[in-house]
């Protein structure tokens, strides 16, 4: 049996996430302490006792979700399940940073600071209200790419997230994305849903943020991950630190090729995906991509214990 550890992206955040893990496992609590120290503020207080609107701000959600994923990873390690038990790690957008931290490629403190910078840079790259994203349900990637091309009309409109066979997200200027939603419905999409996001992620409008991240990543040590990373923009395994650094920059404006990443892992023999951290969004996507992959969520002490028990 071959296993992948997968790490969620933005949208999975909830108030209270990771708190039970921190209470049950000193090593999990230590992750939140380390992130708080790296950021010079009590992000853990916001995660556990704050309001969801503040937590959902990109600059907070990104390091918060990473901290929760790493806390879950430390809880698994405390029970004897290490990163070495996985064949691959992968993450959805910001989850790629969580995956790299879990695999020892980037320190937790550096990852927290990088994600704070990334969140701020992505938020400020486009004035609020000028960009948008929409989930197109019921059309495949090629159909959505054609929709985006026709909707652009001189503006930016791109397929940003290829999530699963039933869902592709488009990103770009607000008017172009609204046109894409309308065109998609004309072409047989079941639904086209404008997403409640504060910026148009993973499209050319994010180039200012990519420039910021190129500079930030240049100053951070990246080691070869303990297990290969399935990179968002390549949908294949990478381990070279310099390549990982370049791909993290490219990822800011590039598409998240999640569907292809899961197919790649399946082709390499992966039969189990453990979703490490908050929520179960990736498990839902993976089931739609390949029903042969068994999905397990690891976000609470109960989840950890159940997995340990299942392994005998």
Textual characterization of the structure:
The chain is of the alpha/beta class. Helix content is 50%, strand content 17%. The protein contains 14 helices and ten strands. Strands 8-7-2-1-9-10 form a six-stranded mixed sheet, sandwiched between helices. Helix 2 packs antiparallel against helix 5. The longest helix is centred in the N-terminal third of the chain and has 21 residues.
Task: Describe this protein with a few key phrases.
single chain, 312 residues, alpha/beta, 4-stranded antiparallel β-sheet, globular
Q: Report the structural category.
A: alpha/beta
What letter string, H or E per element, gives the SSE order?
Answer: EHHHHHEHHEHEEHEHEEHHEHEH
**Rg, Å, rounded:** 18 Å
- Beta-strand content bin: 15-25%
Tell me roughly what share of residues is in helical segments.
Answer: 40-55%
> What profile does the largest beta sheet have?
6 strands, mixed
Summarize this, please?
This protein has 312 residues and is α/β, with parallel strands linked by helices. It is built from 14 helices and ten strands.
Helices and strands, with pairings:
Blueprint: E1 2-7, H1 19-24, H2 26-39, H3 43-49, H4 52-56, H5 58-78, E2 88-91, H6 95-102, H7 108-124, E3 131-137, H8 141-152, E4 157-164, E5 167-173, H9 174-186, E6 191-194, H10 207-218, E7 229-230, E8 237-238, H11 241-253, H12 258-267, E9 270-276, H13 281-289, E10 294-298, H14 301-310
